[in-house]
Amino acid sequence: MAENAPSKSTPIRRVFSGIQPSGKLTLGNYLGAMRNFVKLQHQAECYFCVVDLHALTVPQDPKELYQNTLDLARLYVAAGIDPNVATIFVQSHNPDHAQMGWLMEVSSYFGEMSRMTQFKDKARKAEVVTTGLFTYPALMAADILLYQATHVPVGEDQKQHLELTRDIAIRLNRRFQEEFFTVPEPYIPPQKAGGRIMSLQDPTSKMSKSASDPNSYILLSDPPDVIRKKIKRAVTDMDREVRYDEKNKPGISNLMVILSLCTGQSLDEIAGKYDGYGQFKKDVAEAVVATLEPIQKRFKELSEPGIIEEILAKGAEKAEAASRPTLKGFMERLGMVPRRTL
Ligand code: TRP
After folding, report:
1. Between the chain's N and C termini, which has fewer beta carbons within 10 Å?
2. Mapping DSSP to helix (H, G, I), strand (E, B) and coil, where does residue 206 land?
3. Using one digit for the tens of pLDDT, what is the confidence trace for 249-298?
4. Which residues pair with 49 in a beta bridge?
Protein backbone atom coordinates (compact mmCIF):
# COMPACT_ATOMS: atom_id res chain seq x y z
CA MET A 1 0.00 0.00 0.00
CA ALA A 2 3.01 2.29 0.35
CA GLU A 3 2.52 4.76 -2.47
CA ASN A 4 4.85 7.57 -3.46
CA ALA A 5 7.74 7.65 -1.05
CA PRO A 6 8.85 11.20 -0.22
CA SER A 7 10.92 12.70 -2.98
CA LYS A 8 14.54 11.63 -3.13
CA SER A 9 15.78 14.62 -5.07
CA THR A 10 15.62 17.42 -2.47
CA PRO A 11 15.87 17.04 1.27
CA ILE A 12 12.92 18.61 3.09
CA ARG A 13 14.19 21.91 4.40
CA ARG A 14 11.37 24.40 4.18
CA VAL A 15 7.68 23.73 4.01
CA PHE A 16 4.89 26.13 3.12
CA SER A 17 1.22 25.34 3.14
CA GLY A 18 -1.97 27.34 3.24
CA ILE A 19 -5.59 26.68 4.06
CA GLN A 20 -8.39 29.04 3.15
CA PRO A 21 -10.48 30.45 5.98
CA SER A 22 -13.67 29.74 4.12
CA GLY A 23 -16.16 27.75 6.09
CA LYS A 24 -15.72 25.12 8.71
CA LEU A 25 -13.12 22.40 8.73
CA THR A 26 -13.84 18.70 8.56
CA LEU A 27 -12.31 15.53 9.87
CA GLY A 28 -10.94 15.12 6.33
CA ASN A 29 -8.96 18.37 6.63
CA TYR A 30 -7.51 17.18 9.92
CA LEU A 31 -6.66 13.57 9.06
CA GLY A 32 -5.64 14.38 5.50
CA ALA A 33 -3.68 17.61 5.97
CA MET A 34 -3.21 19.08 9.41
CA ARG A 35 -1.98 15.90 11.04
CA ASN A 36 0.85 15.79 8.54
CA PHE A 37 1.69 19.42 9.26
CA VAL A 38 2.08 18.51 12.92
CA LYS A 39 4.67 15.87 12.05
CA LEU A 40 6.45 18.05 9.50
CA GLN A 41 7.14 20.86 11.95
CA HIS A 42 9.91 18.78 13.53
CA GLN A 43 11.49 17.83 10.21
CA ALA A 44 11.70 21.21 8.50
CA GLU A 45 11.26 24.94 8.88
CA CYS A 46 7.51 25.26 8.44
CA TYR A 47 5.22 28.10 7.46
CA PHE A 48 1.50 27.49 7.89
CA CYS A 49 -0.65 30.23 6.54
CA VAL A 50 -4.28 31.25 6.78
CA VAL A 51 -4.76 32.40 3.21
CA ASP A 52 -7.39 35.10 3.59
CA LEU A 53 -6.44 36.82 0.32
CA HIS A 54 -7.27 33.60 -1.49
CA ALA A 55 -10.59 33.29 0.33
CA LEU A 56 -11.56 36.71 -1.05
CA THR A 57 -11.55 35.38 -4.62
CA VAL A 58 -15.16 34.40 -3.95
CA PRO A 59 -17.73 36.52 -2.09
CA GLN A 60 -17.24 36.40 1.70
CA ASP A 61 -19.43 37.67 4.46
CA PRO A 62 -17.16 40.04 6.45
CA LYS A 63 -18.19 38.74 9.86
CA GLU A 64 -17.73 35.14 8.80
CA LEU A 65 -14.38 35.77 7.18
CA TYR A 66 -13.18 37.45 10.36
CA GLN A 67 -14.34 34.57 12.56
CA ASN A 68 -13.11 31.85 10.19
CA THR A 69 -9.67 33.44 9.98
CA LEU A 70 -9.16 33.40 13.74
CA ASP A 71 -10.75 29.96 14.10
CA LEU A 72 -8.51 28.41 11.47
CA ALA A 73 -5.44 29.84 13.20
CA ARG A 74 -6.74 28.41 16.50
CA LEU A 75 -7.20 25.07 14.85
CA TYR A 76 -3.62 24.95 13.60
CA VAL A 77 -2.50 25.37 17.19
CA ALA A 78 -5.15 23.10 18.70
CA ALA A 79 -4.23 20.34 16.27
CA GLY A 80 -0.69 20.38 17.63
CA ILE A 81 1.32 22.88 15.63
CA ASP A 82 3.58 24.63 18.09
CA PRO A 83 3.81 28.35 17.26
CA ASN A 84 7.29 28.39 18.81
CA VAL A 85 8.43 25.72 16.38
CA ALA A 86 6.54 26.52 13.18
CA THR A 87 5.32 29.88 11.92
CA ILE A 88 1.56 30.34 11.91
CA PHE A 89 0.32 33.53 10.31
CA VAL A 90 -2.36 35.28 8.31
CA GLN A 91 -1.47 35.90 4.68
CA SER A 92 -2.63 39.52 4.59
CA HIS A 93 -0.57 40.36 7.69
CA ASN A 94 2.53 40.04 5.59
CA PRO A 95 2.16 42.55 2.72
CA ASP A 96 4.87 40.77 0.74
CA HIS A 97 2.26 38.27 -0.47
CA ALA A 98 0.15 40.85 -2.28
CA GLN A 99 3.21 42.49 -3.81
CA MET A 100 4.79 39.21 -4.84
CA GLY A 101 1.39 38.15 -6.19
CA TRP A 102 1.51 40.99 -8.69
CA LEU A 103 5.06 40.14 -9.66
CA MET A 104 3.93 36.56 -10.28
CA GLU A 105 1.07 37.80 -12.45
CA VAL A 106 3.55 39.56 -14.67
CA SER A 107 5.86 36.53 -14.64
CA SER A 108 3.21 34.08 -15.79
CA TYR A 109 1.34 33.85 -19.06
CA PHE A 110 -2.34 34.25 -19.83
CA GLY A 111 -2.18 31.01 -21.78
CA GLU A 112 -0.83 28.87 -18.97
CA MET A 113 -3.15 30.50 -16.44
CA SER A 114 -6.09 29.72 -18.73
CA ARG A 115 -5.27 26.02 -18.58
CA MET A 116 -5.90 25.73 -14.82
CA THR A 117 -8.68 23.21 -14.42
CA GLN A 118 -9.74 24.38 -10.97
CA PHE A 119 -10.52 27.83 -12.35
CA LYS A 120 -12.58 26.36 -15.16
CA ASP A 121 -14.48 24.22 -12.65
CA LYS A 122 -15.11 27.02 -10.21
CA ALA A 123 -15.97 29.55 -12.91
CA ARG A 124 -18.59 27.22 -14.33
CA LYS A 125 -20.33 26.92 -10.98
CA ALA A 126 -19.86 30.40 -9.53
CA GLU A 127 -22.36 33.24 -9.66
CA VAL A 128 -19.62 35.83 -9.86
CA VAL A 129 -16.21 35.20 -11.33
CA THR A 130 -13.71 37.71 -9.98
CA THR A 131 -10.48 38.55 -11.76
CA GLY A 132 -8.75 37.28 -8.63
CA LEU A 133 -10.29 33.84 -9.06
CA PHE A 134 -8.51 33.65 -12.38
CA THR A 135 -5.13 34.89 -11.11
CA TYR A 136 -5.41 32.88 -7.86
CA PRO A 137 -2.60 30.48 -8.87
CA ALA A 138 -0.20 33.42 -9.28
CA LEU A 139 -0.83 34.40 -5.67
CA MET A 140 -0.31 30.80 -4.62
CA ALA A 141 3.00 30.76 -6.48
CA ALA A 142 3.92 33.95 -4.62
CA ASP A 143 3.15 32.31 -1.25
CA ILE A 144 5.41 29.40 -2.00
CA LEU A 145 8.32 31.12 -3.74
CA LEU A 146 8.55 33.94 -1.15
CA TYR A 147 9.69 31.41 1.45
CA GLN A 148 11.92 29.38 -0.86
CA ALA A 149 9.91 26.33 0.14
CA THR A 150 11.45 23.01 -0.84
CA HIS A 151 8.20 21.13 -0.24
CA VAL A 152 4.52 21.90 -0.33
CA PRO A 153 1.98 19.46 1.13
CA VAL A 154 -0.89 19.54 -1.32
CA GLY A 155 -3.87 17.44 -2.24
CA GLU A 156 -4.60 16.20 -5.75
CA ASP A 157 -6.65 19.30 -6.53
CA GLN A 158 -3.66 21.62 -6.03
CA LYS A 159 -1.05 19.68 -8.00
CA GLN A 160 -1.58 21.67 -11.17
CA HIS A 161 -1.08 24.94 -9.30
CA LEU A 162 2.16 23.63 -7.85
CA GLU A 163 3.29 22.56 -11.30
CA LEU A 164 2.65 26.12 -12.52
CA THR A 165 4.66 27.46 -9.58
CA ARG A 166 7.56 25.22 -10.57
CA ASP A 167 7.35 26.38 -14.19
CA ILE A 168 7.47 30.03 -13.13
CA ALA A 169 10.43 29.42 -10.79
CA ILE A 170 12.38 27.53 -13.44
CA ARG A 171 11.66 30.20 -16.05
CA LEU A 172 12.82 33.03 -13.77
CA ASN A 173 15.93 31.15 -12.70
CA ARG A 174 16.79 30.69 -16.35
CA ARG A 175 16.24 34.36 -17.06
CA PHE A 176 18.41 35.41 -14.11
CA GLN A 177 20.92 32.68 -14.90
CA GLU A 178 21.10 31.62 -11.28
CA GLU A 179 19.16 29.40 -8.92
CA PHE A 180 17.45 32.34 -7.30
CA PHE A 181 14.16 30.60 -6.57
CA THR A 182 13.93 27.19 -4.94
CA VAL A 183 11.88 24.97 -7.23
CA PRO A 184 9.27 23.44 -4.87
CA GLU A 185 8.17 19.83 -4.86
CA PRO A 186 4.89 18.35 -3.76
CA TYR A 187 5.08 16.64 -0.40
CA ILE A 188 3.23 13.36 -0.30
CA PRO A 189 3.09 11.80 3.15
CA PRO A 190 4.78 8.38 3.49
CA GLN A 191 1.60 6.53 4.46
CA LYS A 192 -1.06 6.35 1.86
CA ALA A 193 -4.19 6.04 3.91
CA GLY A 194 -5.42 9.47 4.90
CA GLY A 195 -4.63 11.35 1.74
CA ARG A 196 -8.30 11.32 1.02
CA ILE A 197 -11.08 10.99 3.52
CA MET A 198 -14.31 10.39 1.66
CA SER A 199 -17.88 11.52 2.19
CA LEU A 200 -19.90 9.41 4.63
CA GLN A 201 -22.91 9.55 2.34
CA ASP A 202 -21.22 9.21 -1.05
CA PRO A 203 -17.91 7.47 -0.35
CA THR A 204 -16.75 7.87 -3.94
CA SER A 205 -16.33 11.63 -3.49
CA LYS A 206 -14.11 13.57 -1.09
CA MET A 207 -15.45 14.63 2.32
CA SER A 208 -16.32 18.27 1.85
CA LYS A 209 -18.02 20.82 4.04
CA SER A 210 -19.69 22.33 1.01
CA ALA A 211 -21.75 19.18 0.44
CA SER A 212 -25.46 19.86 0.94
CA ASP A 213 -26.03 16.97 3.36
CA PRO A 214 -24.38 17.58 6.77
CA ASN A 215 -24.45 13.82 7.39
CA SER A 216 -21.80 13.46 4.71
CA TYR A 217 -19.09 15.17 6.76
CA ILE A 218 -17.81 15.40 10.33
CA LEU A 219 -16.89 18.89 11.41
CA LEU A 220 -13.98 19.33 13.76
CA SER A 221 -16.43 21.23 15.94
CA ASP A 222 -19.10 18.50 16.01
CA PRO A 223 -20.03 17.39 19.55
CA PRO A 224 -19.66 13.66 20.40
CA ASP A 225 -23.32 12.80 19.92
CA VAL A 226 -23.44 14.35 16.49
CA ILE A 227 -20.30 12.42 15.51
CA ARG A 228 -21.85 9.14 16.73
CA LYS A 229 -25.05 9.81 14.83
CA LYS A 230 -23.28 10.68 11.59
CA ILE A 231 -21.10 7.57 11.66
CA LYS A 232 -24.05 5.36 12.50
CA ARG A 233 -25.76 6.69 9.37
CA ALA A 234 -22.70 6.35 7.16
CA VAL A 235 -23.39 4.51 3.92
CA THR A 236 -21.95 0.97 3.77
CA ASP A 237 -22.93 -2.02 1.65
CA MET A 238 -24.99 -5.17 1.66
CA ASP A 239 -22.61 -7.81 3.00
CA ARG A 240 -21.30 -8.01 6.56
CA GLU A 241 -17.59 -8.13 5.90
CA VAL A 242 -15.17 -5.53 7.26
CA ARG A 243 -12.58 -5.68 4.51
CA TYR A 244 -10.57 -3.04 2.65
CA ASP A 245 -11.78 -2.85 -0.94
CA GLU A 246 -11.95 0.69 -2.25
CA LYS A 247 -13.70 -0.32 -5.42
CA ASN A 248 -16.44 -2.63 -4.19
CA LYS A 249 -16.70 -1.44 -0.59
CA PRO A 250 -15.89 2.29 -0.64
CA GLY A 251 -17.95 3.12 2.46
CA ILE A 252 -16.42 0.44 4.68
CA SER A 253 -12.95 1.15 3.31
CA ASN A 254 -13.30 4.83 4.17
CA LEU A 255 -14.41 4.04 7.73
CA MET A 256 -11.48 1.64 8.06
CA VAL A 257 -9.08 4.38 7.00
CA ILE A 258 -10.62 6.75 9.54
CA LEU A 259 -10.33 4.13 12.30
CA SER A 260 -6.78 3.32 11.30
CA LEU A 261 -5.69 6.95 11.36
CA CYS A 262 -7.41 7.64 14.68
CA THR A 263 -6.06 4.58 16.51
CA GLY A 264 -2.85 3.64 14.72
CA GLN A 265 -4.10 0.13 13.93
CA SER A 266 -3.27 -1.15 10.47
CA LEU A 267 -6.02 -1.90 7.98
CA ASP A 268 -5.19 -5.60 8.23
CA GLU A 269 -5.55 -5.60 11.99
CA ILE A 270 -8.93 -3.91 11.70
CA ALA A 271 -10.15 -6.27 8.98
CA GLY A 272 -9.60 -9.33 11.12
CA LYS A 273 -11.48 -8.03 14.10
CA TYR A 274 -15.13 -7.78 13.24
CA ASP A 275 -18.04 -9.84 12.10
CA GLY A 276 -20.74 -7.40 11.16
CA TYR A 277 -20.86 -3.64 11.00
CA GLY A 278 -22.51 -2.74 14.32
CA GLN A 279 -19.53 -2.95 16.62
CA PHE A 280 -17.22 -1.72 13.87
CA LYS A 281 -19.17 1.51 13.44
CA LYS A 282 -19.32 2.00 17.20
CA ASP A 283 -15.54 1.67 17.41
CA VAL A 284 -15.06 4.13 14.54
CA ALA A 285 -17.32 6.65 16.26
CA GLU A 286 -15.55 6.34 19.61
CA ALA A 287 -12.14 6.61 17.95
CA VAL A 288 -13.15 9.83 16.17
CA VAL A 289 -14.65 11.26 19.36
CA ALA A 290 -11.46 10.46 21.28
CA THR A 291 -9.27 11.97 18.54
CA LEU A 292 -11.21 15.21 18.37
CA GLU A 293 -11.80 15.67 22.09
CA PRO A 294 -8.38 17.07 23.02
CA ILE A 295 -8.37 19.28 19.91
CA GLN A 296 -11.75 20.71 20.81
CA LYS A 297 -10.61 21.32 24.37
CA ARG A 298 -7.49 23.20 23.27
CA PHE A 299 -9.52 25.09 20.70
CA LYS A 300 -11.78 26.35 23.46
CA GLU A 301 -8.83 27.48 25.54
CA LEU A 302 -7.44 29.32 22.54
CA SER A 303 -10.71 31.19 22.21
CA GLU A 304 -9.91 33.31 25.28
CA PRO A 305 -9.48 36.86 23.99
CA GLY A 306 -5.97 37.86 22.98
CA ILE A 307 -4.30 34.46 22.83
CA ILE A 308 -4.49 33.72 19.13
CA GLU A 309 -4.02 37.40 18.29
CA GLU A 310 -0.64 37.35 20.02
CA ILE A 311 0.43 34.14 18.29
CA LEU A 312 -0.50 35.68 14.94
CA ALA A 313 1.35 38.92 15.70
CA LYS A 314 4.54 36.95 16.30
CA GLY A 315 3.89 34.78 13.29
CA ALA A 316 3.53 37.78 10.99
CA GLU A 317 6.90 39.12 12.14
CA LYS A 318 8.64 35.81 11.55
CA ALA A 319 6.97 35.42 8.17
CA GLU A 320 7.95 38.87 7.01
CA ALA A 321 11.53 38.41 8.14
CA ALA A 322 11.68 35.23 6.06
CA SER A 323 10.01 36.56 2.91
CA ARG A 324 11.50 40.05 2.67
CA PRO A 325 14.96 39.02 1.42
CA THR A 326 13.38 37.01 -1.41
CA LEU A 327 11.10 39.86 -2.42
CA LYS A 328 13.93 42.40 -2.30
CA GLY A 329 16.31 40.17 -4.26
CA PHE A 330 13.66 39.48 -6.88
CA MET A 331 12.80 43.17 -7.33
CA GLU A 332 16.46 44.01 -7.62
CA ARG A 333 16.86 41.43 -10.37
CA LEU A 334 13.85 42.87 -12.19
CA GLY A 335 15.48 46.30 -12.19
CA MET A 336 13.18 47.98 -9.71
CA VAL A 337 14.60 50.90 -7.75
CA PRO A 338 14.62 50.09 -4.03
CA ARG A 339 12.96 52.51 -1.66
CA ARG A 340 15.46 54.41 0.42
CA THR A 341 14.58 55.27 3.98
CA LEU A 342 15.09 58.91 4.98
N1 TRP B 1 -4.96 26.85 -2.98
C2 TRP B 1 -4.89 26.12 -1.75
C3 TRP B 1 -6.22 25.40 -1.49
O4 TRP B 1 -7.25 25.91 -1.82
C5 TRP B 1 -4.56 27.03 -0.59
C6 TRP B 1 -3.22 27.66 -0.77
C7 TRP B 1 -2.95 28.97 -1.00
C8 TRP B 1 -1.97 26.99 -0.70
N9 TRP B 1 -1.63 29.18 -1.06
C10 TRP B 1 -0.99 28.00 -0.90
C11 TRP B 1 -1.60 25.66 -0.49
C12 TRP B 1 0.35 27.68 -0.91
C13 TRP B 1 -0.24 25.34 -0.52
C14 TRP B 1 0.72 26.36 -0.72
O15 TRP B 1 -6.20 24.34 -0.93
Report:
1. C
2. strand
3. 999 999 999 999 999 999 999 998 998 999 999 999 999 999 999 999 99
4. 18, 89
CA of 179 to the centre of ligand 1 (A): 24
Question: Residue whose CA is closest, atom 14 of ligand 1?
Answer: 17
Residue from 24, 192, 209, 318 carrying the catalytic annotation: 209
> How far is ligand 1, taken at its centre, from the CA of residue 266, in Å?
30
Distance CA 86, CA 73 (A): 12
CA nearest 226: which of 75, 31, 26, 34?
Answer: 26
Per DSSP, the three-state class of 134 is helix
Using alpha carbons, select from 50, 41, 29 the residue that is nearest to residue 195.
29
Q: Please tell me the distance from the alpha carbon of residue 275 to that of residue 280, in angstroms, as a whole number.
A: 8
273 part of the active site: no
**Ligand 1 mean position to 153 CA, how many Å?**
9
Note the pLDDT tens digit of each residue in 163-211.
999 999 999 999 999 999 999 999 987 765 556 899 999 999 989 888 8
Report DSSP state, residue 24. -
Collapsed DSSP state (helix, strand, coil) of residue 124: helix
19 CA: nearest ligand 1 atom: 5
